[in-house]
Design a protein that fits this description.
With 587 residues, this protein is an alpha/beta fold. The strands form seven sheets. The protein has a seven-stranded parallel beta sheet, sandwiched between helices.
């Protein structure tokens, strides 16, 4: 996401990119596809003859590149999915898409239909305590929240591998849909249908591509594990608990053998939130929370971003995994898409899990596990290939962190159903608790279920978390800036008037990166700027109302330097009640 601010106040948002894919096993799976997504500007307004002519023009363009295309289907976003007669490398698919767009002015965009994978790091060690809910150090403080909300009345869509019927999950599963259109990927003998059950996603060596995977990979039952964390049946003297055990889950199956296509995932996002997809029955239970624990390396593409925008327009919050590559989440989609809540993973000690992605695109963190008894326990199946019997298993990954946040959002919406997606994000960030161990660039903190529900209810004020300091006026200029001397401090600030501006300063040690995260109140648009010791602007973030601003700057020198952080008002509330914000300074 690139945001531009022009003199005079105009603001523009520009989302650019191409979706790429990576699996936990190999980066090689990002390098091929056999499908292209084409969006025509005229949409469905053309006659059948005109549509045929248009498709013929696209096929002729592809033929010049030595590729034959056939029409597969239309998507819920009005774009067309075309299949190539052979597997294309990523570079070939990019060139083909670019040629299609350049040769026809009626093409709005064309892009590869990439294959995504679930963001899972499995672990087979069994442990019967769900520390990730209640432990003070690494947990999400769920038990206190359950006294006020269980998620009753809220529907959460799990966009994943589908689900296995499970005694500890069945009562909370609603009618879902299988969106996998490719019969090899679906592994159930057919294409799209109303059966969202997971038949298994095992892969033999070399089945996805030459050398990919290198060895046999057993079925993951990934969607079943995710669904159990969100809404496993609780207080039934059996198995595990769910974060929002009063909520219901609509499973949307998009991942199978070797992953799943972007076009199928996008249709599932649209349908799950109550949108219309051609050839698919309407979703009788539209979801207000979409839990998406999948992804791949590359910028956010048009297809995915448009689907997310569509879901948000219907009031759905989209919660996504940051990814498991221990690199900046800005490299991964949909973690880098606009309007989502991107979730990093922490271990049992409350610090960053070794595998978790990080960066300015991350909003919050949640328990993802760190191996062995320190992993996340949830529902599963014993089958190595095809389904076996009910079981429970310990898994690690940002896939495991994401449903914790999805469950907390369900608790919030059960407490206050009118919350908008932006308000949900703002509350998650403003109520998150500071990290008890190192988790640089992991968002505002570890999601705090109890504090988030309190904030949603609006009848209590969550106490300031440890490490919170009060703003001290006057701090309206760089020379009068307020010193923040402790790493990972959160300032509880106030924009007192329409002309108020607040400055803070930190001493940044050599080799360290300062991550400044500004969380405004839900109805205000405040902006964030960082200056060097000479007063020159070196970083800024100017996102919209209720949205979090983050700026990262690094001291690459050999000695400590001073950095100034400024908070200003663009629009919205002012004063002690309506002008609140928090500013986290982490280095």
């Amino acid at each position: 996401m690139i945001r531009l601010s022009t003199k005079g106040g105009a603001r523009l948002s520009l989302a650019i990119g191409l979706l790429m894919c990576a699996s936990a096993a190999s980066a090689a799976d990002a390098n091929f596809t056999d499908r292209i997504i084409v969006k025509y500007r005229s949409g469905g307004l053309l006659s059948g003859i005109e549509q045929t002519k248009q498709m013929n023009a696209t096929e002729a363009s592809a033929a010049r590149s030595g590729v034959a295309l056939t029409h597969v289907r239309a998507t819920g976003l009005g774009s067309q999915v075309l299949r190539a007669d052979r597997r294309l490398s990523l570079d070939e698919a990019r060139r083909l898409a670019a040629d299609i767009a350049a040769s026809d002015p009626n093409v709005e965009y064309a892009e590869p239909d990439r294959i995504m994978r679930h963001t899972l790091t499995p672990n087979d060690t069994r442990y019967n305590e769900q520390w990730h809910y209640f432990e003070t150090t690494g947990g999400i403080n769920a038990p206190a929240a359950w006294d006020k909300s269980t998620g009753a009345g809220v529907v959460v869509a799990v966009i994943d591998t589908g689900y296995r019927p499970h005694a500890d999950l069945n009562a909370n599963i609603l009618q879902g849909y299988d969106f996998i259109s490719d019969t090899f990927v679906s592994n159930d003998g057919n294409g799209r249908d109303s059966d969202a059950r997971d038949p298994g996603d095992w892969i033999n060596a070399g089945e996805c591509a030459p050398g990919d995977p290198a060895t046999f990979e057993a079925s993951s039952w990934h969607g079943t594990h995710v669904a159990g964390t969100i809404a496993a049946v609780t207080n039934n003297t059996n198995g595990v608990a769910g974060v929002a055990f009063g909520a219901k889950v609509v499973p949307a199956r998009v991942l199978g053998k070797c992953g799943g296509y972007t076009s199928d995932i996008a249709d599932a996002i649209v349908w799950s939130s109550g949108g219309s997809v051609s050839g698919v029955p309407a979703n009788a239970n539209p979801a207000k929370v979409l839990s998406i624990s999948l992804g791949g390396i590359g910028p956010c593409d048009n297809t995915t971003q448009n689907a997310i925008n569509s879901a948000r327009s219907r009031g759905a919050s989209v919660i996504v995994a940051a990814g498991n590559y221990n690199h900046n989440a800005s490299q991964d989609s949909p973690a880098n898409c606009s309007g989502v809540v991107t979730v990093a993973a922490t271990g049992r000690n409350g610090g960053k899990a070794s595998y978790s992605n990080y960066g300015a695109t991350v909003e919050v963190a949640a328990p993802g596990g760190s191996g062995g008894a320190n992993s996340v326990l949830s529902t599963l199946n014993t089958g190595t290939t095809t389904p076996g019997s009910d079981s429970y298993a310990l898994y690690n990954g940002t896939s495991m962190a994401t449903p914790h946040v999805s469950g907390v959002v369900a608790l919030m919406l059960a407490a206050k159903s009118t919350l908008t997606p932006d308000q949900v994000t703002s509350i998650l960030q403003s109520t998150a608790r500071p990290f008890p161990a190192t988790c640089s660039q992991c968002g505002s903190g570890i999601v705090n279920a109890n504090a988030a529900v309190d904030a949603a209810l609006g009848n209590t004020t969550p106490p300031d978390p440890p490490g919170t300091i009060a703003e001290v006026e006057p701090n309206n200029s760089r020379s009068a800036s307020q010193l923040v001397s402790t790493d990972n401090s959160t300032v509880a600030g106030v924009i007192g008037s329409t002309s108020d501006t607040d400055y803070y300063r930190v001493t940044l040690p050599a080799g360290r990166t300062l991550v400044s995260t500004l969380v405004p109140n839900a109805t205000s648009d405040y902006d964030l700027y960082v200056y060097n010791s000479n007063g020159s602007l070196i970083g800024s973030s100017e996102r919209g109302t209720g949205q979090t601003d983050t700026v990262s700057v690094t001291n690459s020198g050999s000695s400590a330097i001073t950095r100034y952080i400024r908070v200003t008002r663009w629009s919205g509330g002012t004063g002690a009640t309506n002008g609140k914000y928090t500013l986290n300074l982490n280095w």
